[in-house]
Amino acid sequence: MTQPTLYYDGSCGMCRREIDHLRPRLAPQIDLVDISQPGFRPPTGYQLGDMMAHLHFHDGQRMHVGLSASLGYWHRAGGGFRWLARVLALPGLFQCGNWAYNRWAAWRLRRLHCKPPR
């Protein structure tokens, strides 16, 4: 089993603010990896462009992408984030939330001018 790892885009202000807010809760138990840093190498089988387009969270056993990634690290953050993760994981709500996440992720890359994939 490997250390849980959250791969996030630190060049995106919104992404960076969320991780900075959660860092005290996450850092003791999860490696936080800013994929926008020079020299970052994606894990085997993953492409930087895909990782820039959607959040990735490796829970120690498997990789979660998009909303599933958010739910994974929110659950580990505890408090109200754990409650939010449980609610959004419910059937129906997850599908709606995943749809919204995918729209937001596409908009983020187009409109916020986040650093393009290398």
Automatic annotation (TrEMBL):
Name of this chain's protein: Putative DCC family thiol-disulfide oxidoreductase YuxK
Superkingdom of origin organism: Bacteria
GO molecular function: protein-disulfide reductase activity
Organism: Spiribacter vilamensis
Pfam short name (any one): DCC1-like
